[in-house]
Amino acid sequence: MKELILEIEKYASEKNIPIIEKKTIAYIMKFINDNNIKNILEIGSAIGYSSILMASVNPNISITTIEKDEQRYMECIKNIKKAGYDKRINVVYQDALEMNLSNDIKYDLIFIDAAKGQYINFFEKFKYFLNDKGFIISDNLNFHGYVGRSTELEKGNLRSLVEKIESYKDFLEHNEEFDTRFIDVGDTISISERKKDE
Predict the structure, then answer these.
(1) Residues sharing a CB contact under 8 Å with residue 63, sequence separation 6 or more, in sequence order
(2) Euclidean distance between CA atoms 87 and 100, whole angstroms
(3) For 2-51, how does the pLDDT look when each residue is reduced to its tens digit (9 = 90+)?
(4) How far lies 147's CA from each of 20, 44, 116, 150, 187, in Å?
(5) What is the DSSP letter of 121?
(6) H or E segment at 79?
(7) First vs last Cα of the chain: how many Å apart?
(8) 132-157: per-residue pLDDT in tens?
(9) Dihedral in degrees, nearest 10, Cα atoms 13, 17, 8, 86
(10) Are 129 and 106 in contact (CB under 8 A)?
């Protein structure tokens, strides 16, 4: 497994494919273990790096991961087969916002790590598929140090994206349904859970 992980890291680096930071995935793996998480929905598979590592925490974990880029989807399938996790990780080739999930399925963890500009839409769409005591984790909320500094950036794609992440953080901080904490690990993650009844 270690060889495969190194191989995926090398491929991602050569092809300039963004994968989760090592410190972040280590934190999430510990979180999965500590919270006895078994059923995970991942928005944004890329090439399978994070889903393989999450599945490696415990043999009882099952994951559905969604990827809309065909090349990355194919690479993801290949890597998951190599890891021997193709029975436990279901890779779906689709735009997550167009996907219809079965209402019968509820997830212990929903991990959002796809198009940053769509984070609010992902959260709003998939929160209905979260177990009552489940968690939604979102990655890259610092966005390489730009978040909180959008006004310093020239107008353009980067500034627009950073402003969307800032809006998402604001959306989480003022959400009436969910309590969110921000964890300063890697590129910053948020962990959201439904508010407890007082």
Answers:
(1) 39, 40, 41, 42, 51, 54, 55, 88, 89, 90
(2) 21
(3) 999 999 999 999 999 999 999 999 999 999 999 999 999 999 999 999 99
(4) 18, 21, 12, 6, 10
(5) H
(6) helix 70-83
(7) 45
(8) 999 999 999 999 899 999 999 999 99
(9) 180
(10) yes
Cβ neighbours of residue 45 closer than 8 Å, sequence gap 6 or more: 51, 65, 66, 67, 72, 73, 76, 91
User: If you search the block for the tokens 């999430």, which residue do you land on?
Assistant: 28
Residue owning tokens 């980067």: 158
3-state secondary structure 161-197: HHHHHHHHHHHHHCCCCEEEEEECCCCCEEEEEECCC
pTM: 0.95
The tokens describing 120, both together, are: 């609010």
Enumerate domains of the chain plus CATH numbers. Answer: 2-194 (3.40.50.150)
